[in-house]
Design a protein that fits this description.
This protein has eleven helices and four strands, in the order ααβαββααααβαααα. With 244 residues, the chain is mainly α. Strands 1-4 form a two-stranded antiparallel ribbon. A hairpin with a 3-residue loop joins strand 2 and strand 3. Helix 1 packs antiparallel against helix 7 and helix 3 packs across helix 7. The radius of gyration is 20 Å and the shape is globular.
Length: 244
């Protein structure tokens, strides 16, 4: 859009709005057609990636205007990077939304028990649809910020971000069964994940082990979460360790 002569800030806004549209597509298939979320997001992710390759012909996009670069690379008062300020603003807005609004309570209710949420009058399909729209908006915002930071764009950017995102969420206390989690915890989980990665580097361990350690940490966190949510499983694990 910028290459076609559009104002860079307007192009950023349109890009984020497109994220909402793509998120709505996911939400429609998942909320209203009741298709498994993993399958839908996997399929649409490939479709969206293919569209990007078609538009860019697999070539990187360069020449991001300096005013757009400032959004991600600027420093205010020689202290705070603009991208950190944006992160803080987003975290505050999402935290208030989740903890202080009806929509946020509905999200937790839907994640905790869909049937109960429906019985008490929550329009679960609409809530789920809005959640996926919000997810699309945040994903688009992340893409825009990365493009501004690198002053270029390539379709392969972000291909390996799924696992770090899941790791941050799990380490931050988000339950895989739903109903429990928060933005602040996810940020802390991201910092912990970064600490693990940095520690492996400082210990001069082969970088190949980083994925092994990360996967192991996520698996352990998921097992602990499952034990907390499932008393039967917790009892079985306790008996197993007692026998040993």
């Amino acid at each position: 859009m910028v290459e076609m002569g559009m104002n860079s800030y307007l192009a950023i806004i349109v890009s984020c709005l497109l994220g909402i549209v793509f998120g709505a597509v996911n939400g429609f298939f998942i909320a209203y057609l009741k298709i498994t979320p993993f399958i839908v997001t996997l399929a649409t992710g490939e479709i969206y990636k293919g569209i990007v390759y078609i538009i860019t012909k697999g070539m990187p996009i360069v020449g991001v205007p300096e005013d757009a670069q400032f959004i991600a690379n600027g420093v205010i008062g020689d202290i705070l990077p603009t991208i950190v300020i944006i992160m803080i603003i987003i975290c505050v807005i999402l935290t208030i939304m989740l903890r202080r609004t009806k929509f946020g309570r509905h999200i937790f209710a839907l994640g905790g028990n869909r049937n109960c949420a429906k019985i008490v009058g929550i329009k679960t399909e609409r809530v789920e649809m809005m959640v996926y729209c919000l997810s699309g908006l945040l994903a688009a915002t992340a893409g825009v910020l990365m493009t501004c930071k690198l002053a270029s764009f390539q379709a392969s950017i972000g291909a390996n971000w799924v696992m770090p995102s899941v790791t941050a969420s799990v380490l931050g206390g988000t339950s895989m069964t739903g109903g429990i989690g928060g933005v602040v915890g996810t940020v802390i989980g991201g910092l912990l994940s970064g600490t693990i990665s940095t520690s492996i580097t400082l210990m001069r361990v082969s970088s190949y082990w980083e994925t092994v350690v990360t996967g192991g940490v996520v698996l352990i966190a998921v097992v602990i979460d499952a034990m907390k949510e499932n008393p039967v499983m917790r009892e079985k694990m306790v008996r197993m360790f007692k026998r040993k």
